[in-house]
Amino acid sequence: MRAEIVILPGDGIGPEVTAAAVAVLRAVARRFGHALNFAEHDIGGIAIDRHGDPLPPATLDACNRADAVLLGAVGGPKWSDPNARVRPEQGLLALRRALGLYANLRPVQPHPATLGAAPIKPHLLSGVDLLVVRELTGGIYFGDKTRTADSASDLCSYSVAEIERVVRRACRLAQGRRCHVTSVDKANVLETSRLWRDVATRIARDEFPDILLEHQLVDSMAMHLLSRPRAYDVVVTENMFGDILTDEASMLAGSMGLLPSASLGDGKAGLYEPIHGSAPDIAGRGIANPYGAILSAALLLRHSLGLVDEAACVEQAVDSALEAGVLSADLAAGGDAVGTHGVAAAVVERIETPSHVAELRD
Which Gene3D superfamilies did the record assign (predicted)? Predict the structure, then answer.
């Protein structure tokens, strides 16, 4: 296969973790005989500094033409003034909307080797395997905003069509898993949530009779996600609730640095990124955890390039590295930590081991 992949390193540790992910993708290309071409472009704070725009036209044009996009992180103290006219996060939001990426997939599957890094009791984490599907281009983040000297407002709105498409995506994904979907809303208070619940109920009932759908209020979901995470399979929710709940869910895995994400639309192209931020306090020190970026690359292989075996190879290589104790500083709990380059090298070594691939295909 030949594919064009745009790399958006961004800010902070973004360049470090995307470099690790690209090293892994290059190893996959060598092992399986693919031609993967990479082109770097600016986004976020670095793009503001260089171009005065968090999403320069050249970056957007390249992303529109690419088969997939891999992002590091955006933002940092230099650009953190919330009253600034131009901010790094605007570039990311604009890119999601421009590419029509309405569904953000965030899998959470704690690894036995990292349970000690999680603040949750290990017996609650064994067997956890959930997928959060977050609506990505609607809701309060994209609504009209007003500000006066005495007040401010942010409009939260959703259309039936916006809800239908993300609920359908969640139900299709659940059909390949355990056929259980939990729809999260705040229907006891918000009109948008009442619409969300009505639409989700209709879609599941009329189009996915094999799916067990349950509804959960977001405040109780925040509690249950930590107290009984094994109870959930696919969780679908609106933009802001999904943003908050997925950061909470990262604690199930032991570190935000472990978790990948895929932002998808109706086409094959997608945007892939670890869920962590730019972590400017550790940028340039070579200690950032690249596992989330590497696993995001696996999602890229699966969802945008259709390379299922290759994606599984990366995921198994990550599992093997973690099992062998290749732990970054955020996971080592005071023990021996491996740097960013060392983690990437360990994953690459496992991908390039013929016995690993042969075992995968047996």
Answer: Isopropylmalate Dehydrogenase
